[in-house]
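Hello forum,

I keep getting stuck at the same step: I have a sequence, I want structure tokens, and every attempt I make locally crashes halfway through. Rather than fight my setup again tonight, could one of you with a working pipeline run this one for me? It's a single chain of 340 residues.
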Amino acid sequence: MNSVAARPRIKDVAEYAGVSPKTVSNVINNFEHVSDRTRETVKEAIEALGYRVNIAGRQLRQGRTGMITLAVPELDVAYFAELAKHVMAEADRRGQTVLLHQTNGVRERELAALHGFDAQFTDGVILSPLALHPRDVATRDRRLPVVLLGERPAEGSTDHVAIDNVAAAREATAHLLSRGRRRIAVVGGMVRGPQGTDRLRTDGYREALKEADVPFDSDLVVPVDAFHWRDGARAAAALLDAAPRPDALLCLNDHLALGALRALYERGVSVPGELDVVGFDDIEASRFSVPSLTTVAPDKREIARAAVALLLDRIDDPDTSPLQDHVVGHEIIVRESTGG
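Reply #2:
Ran it on my machine without issues. Output:
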């Protein structure tokens, strides 16, 4: 009768490496106070014995589920789908399972996520909010670790990860200005209102105009009902019917920009000949449109890495450090829609 080899334990690794079980545990948990030589010896023992961390057992001992929640507005908006992919990959690398929740930008659903759904099946929440009020976040139950993505409703209330939206929009507008464009419309923009992503990107646009001594025209800031393909197409069609027409569109996400490109094509407007188009988010479709889309590319992989790391640090020790405000980098990807 064949016997199944017993799964190696920490004790076995310690004996093989000639160290204590506590030292092995310190290496596995990446504690700092272990010498490089000892750390390497333990890692070699782990590899030689084929030891694997018993994640379920560890989580049970620590009173955790091993699951975190990612709550985003809409999964059919490609930016959120691509971000979710990166969050899930990073969480898997860290031994966590991700529960994916779609809020549709509805306050009640965002509140449910903010409070962990009043259940015990999640250790923490990564939330990209659209509808939360500042008081919702400021008065939340702080026993549940939360990391907010994008523009947070209340300062100093949670850990937070975002790009610098003002700087990103300013740089995108400056790129259009450098090409001689002067009547630049903002599709999805907002002149007044709360400091959400749309308002901050509009502020960056206005800063670039001011730096170039180009007058601001509020008629060129076009709000939209949603950030979908059809909303971009409708906004572009309306701008083409206005007089005088814009000579460039700064669209506040790639869905709006790709919808605008379709409307321009149907009207016979050449891009970038008559009009330039810039988007935000660098979704995969932006590389395959005709013309390919110039866009602001946030570092989605770093957003995911930072959000998961902040959340797990907060789960490990809720009072470990002051709340973190992590700003992630971005770049302008110049493609055919602005002559790239």
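Residues 300-316 form the longest helix (17 residues). If your local run keeps crashing, start a new thread with the error log.
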